[in-house]
Amino acid sequence: MDYVKKGAWSPEEDQKLIDYIMKYGVWNWSHMPKFAGLSRTGKSCRLRWINYLKPDLKKGPFSMEEVEFVIRMYQSLGNKWSAIAKELPGRTDNEIKNFYHTHLKKHLGTKVEVKPKSRKKAKQIEMSIQKKPLITTCPNIQGPDDQSLDFTNSSSSSYITFDENYDFLEISYQDNDVTSIVNQVHDDNIVILESNPDSSTSSSSSVDLHINDFMDVSVHSSNVDFWLDLYLAADNLKI
DNA sequence: AACCGTTCCAACCGCAAACGG
DNA sequence: CCCGTTTGCGGTTGGAACGGT
Predict the structure, then answer these.
(1) Which ranges carry the Myb-like domain (predicted)?
(2) Is the model's pLDDT at A72 over the cut of 90?
(3) Which end of chain A is more exposed for a tag (fewer CB within 10 A), N or C?
(4) Regarding predicted confidence, which is higher, A109 or A175?
């Protein structure tokens, strides 16, 4: 049998693979296809089973908890997708990798420079960040009342404030007090912060993170191209 | 309706690691 | 230890679906 099928799996092929594995289990991926009546490579069968057909897979969009977990794991492990997947039951390495590339990648690139006032403070911040790092993300997010939180054309300062646990407190922007909106974003939610990647052409798009004496953290930028978005955990969140 | 650019993910590929004779 | 085979991993991509004009 020389012909090897490639591309999308048909429902019939899926069923053959499921039936075979349910009956005989996985014993040898490379030999199994011909016994299962499949014109596929073992590699293709393995991938199809592991990433799609296995019964204990969780289907559907990532929950907020899963998103947060993936972000934190990525920030501590990097692109160790299988290691991350092991800690996230029901999600495969491929799924997490796809999720990262489609939803997170473009938002995680910006480094925020921390300029603590003292060495002690620096250590505190370092530990705090390890525990609960600043996270990033999505442009053009809709606020709770469908208010679009668009900071793209900022020509003034923006502040975002966290408490000593790095929990989000408030945000102020120009003359507009958006605290009322933000207050609806609850503690469990992730606040995302980044400079606009599209503004990379501009000469000085730095963002400074200032630690004040109260151990609050505020982010300040007077750069025209700086923008902030909030990544809301509300049910209407689209990611 | 037709076209076109973008988004997204299933599935591919190459390579590395693990296995086993 | 060696070497062929199998399994596992991470980067990449083809094309379907979607959204805008």
Answers:
(1) 1-53, 54-104
(2) no
(3) N
(4) A109
> CATH code at A73?
1.10.10.60
Distance from residue A80's CA to nucleotide B17's C1', rounded to whole Å: 15
| Claim to verify: residue A138 and residue A154 sit in the same structural domain | yes
Kindly tell me if the per-residue pLDDT of A173 is higher than 50.
no
Q: Give the count of domains, chain A.
A: 3
Nucleotides of B under 7 A from a protein CB: 7-14
Residues A69 and A119 in one domain: no
Measured distance CA(A119)–CA(A106) in Å, rounded:
32
A83 sits within 7 Å of strand C by its CB: yes
A71 neighbors A105 (Cβ within 8 angstroms): no
Whole domain around residue A41: which residue ranges?
A: 11-53
Q: Considering the entire predicted model, what is its pTM?
A: 0.58
Cβ of A100 near strand C (distance < 7 A): no
DSSP string, A201-213: TSS----EEEE-T
Helix (H) or strand (E) holding A161: strand A158-162
- Report pLDDT for A46: 96
Answer for the pair A104, A96: CB distance below 8 angstroms, yes or no: no
Closest-CA residue to A58 (of A27, A25, A99): A99
Mean pLDDT of the region A99-118 = 52
